[in-house]
Automatic annotation (TrEMBL):
PANTHER family: ALDEHYDE DEHYDROGENASE-RELATED (PTHR11699). This is Aldehyde dehydrogenase. Keywords: Oxidoreductase. Pfam families: Aldedh. The active site is at 250. Transmembrane segments: none annotated. Residues 19-472 form the Aldehyde dehydrogenase domain. The keyword Nuclease does not apply. It comes from Roseibium sediminicola. Belongs to the aldehyde dehydrogenase family. PROSITE patterns: ALDEHYDE_DEHYDR_CYS, ALDEHYDE_DEHYDR_GLU. Coiled coil: none annotated. The lineage of its organism: Bacteria, Pseudomonadati, Pseudomonadota, Alphaproteobacteria, Hyphomicrobiales.
Amino acid sequence: MQHYQLYIDGQRREGADGQVMTTENPSTGEAWASFACAAPEDVDAAVAAARRALSDPAWRDMTQTARGKLLFRLAELIERNAEKLGRLETADSGKLLAETLSQTGYVGDFYRYYGGLADKIEGAVLPIDKPGMHAFTRREPIGVVAAIVPWNAQMFLTATKLGPALAAGCAVVLKASEMAPVPMLEFASLVEEAGFPPGVVSVITGDAENCAIPLTRHPAVDRIAFTGGPETAKHVVRNSAENFAVTSLELGGKSPVLVFADADLESAANGLIAGNFGASGQSCVAGSRGLVQREIFDELVARISDKAAGIRVGDPLEAATHVGPLCTKAQVKRIRETLAKAEAQGATIRFGGALLDRPGNYMAPTLVECPTAEIETLKVEMFGPVMSLMPFDTEEEAIALANDTEFGLASGLFTSDVARAHRVSERLHAGICWVNTYRAISPIAPFGGYNKSGYGREGGLEAVLDYTRTKTTWINTSGAPMSNPFVMR
């Protein structure tokens, strides 16, 4: 069994208390790798290394252009090692190899995007209203960043944090999910090979008590970038009260997808399948609240059912597989309980709803027809291949149903009416709206939500500024000494 160590201050090491965990392959249910877990002492060591790196001339005095070149180098190494990283992620989390290879290869563009922005972080000369004064601003690295990523899209969600943080000149302690940390522990080798000085990036993992809590409440942490669930986020926010760290949260969602009668139904069916069965439904932007105009409801259900009959569930390493296993047995249990409750509430399972008779955490793609908005599968985040559809009659009703949620990460709508596309997308309470498509990402496009889907944005031009602080400098150019010290200038 392959064993992976923590990466702290440029060195591989075991955890201070010797704790080791194993990770299971979700497609077989068998343990396949072990990894060291961080103790509070290891968290202290990683944060201390990051703090030292910020003062080390090797990083502190490196030009922004040179930092950008390191990010370009990292992008090249990721692409060169995409297959290795993709296979590790598939073995660890059960994601389709086709997707892990594609996603890992594409995240290189995120690092290039932020590498290109590294020497474009500018200040400004202020047209100050005080004669004889010169005032200007500069943006400085915010400091030590605690970046916490989940298991379901590790390379992508790491890039959205690490890219802008390093471009800004910060130092990062990356906490990988203990559910499937192997790809990130391997990724640390590429950071080192790219030439980042020791301590600029450390990669650790471990449980909440010994790793996540000490990291998020650490007094030397200046910024927290967290992706995960709302309940865990509440603890992160409470912990940040200990250090006043600037915090961004990218949380879960219960995203609506609105299909109007004038939509291209083939495109809509594919969009709903992508939003619910893509990544086995293990996506924070899963479009798991399908709202379909009543006159096309039956036709769209039939079309989706026909397509679902051809979905292949199986080994995520096989190219022909469309849906792989769920990452954990706990997900399977929770989904089955939620489906049972939905049926008791009057919902109808059109297809799926059962486990597959094979080793691993395999769940059949499932379609739930919901008579009301109170059905459980329309209310809670499923994180599995479960699509829930409900009919609506009018545009106003569709918007009201779409916005009747405590979340607000993503949304989608399918229509051939351009005016409606603008009108409805503007009124949907979500940080992302896809029109006549779904589940598209780019380093150029901001990513984040409203309400219980979190706050702050990742991706896009502004994200790099979120890893900086603005300093204002005043210079007396008049040549005259300060006068009355008791009166504000």
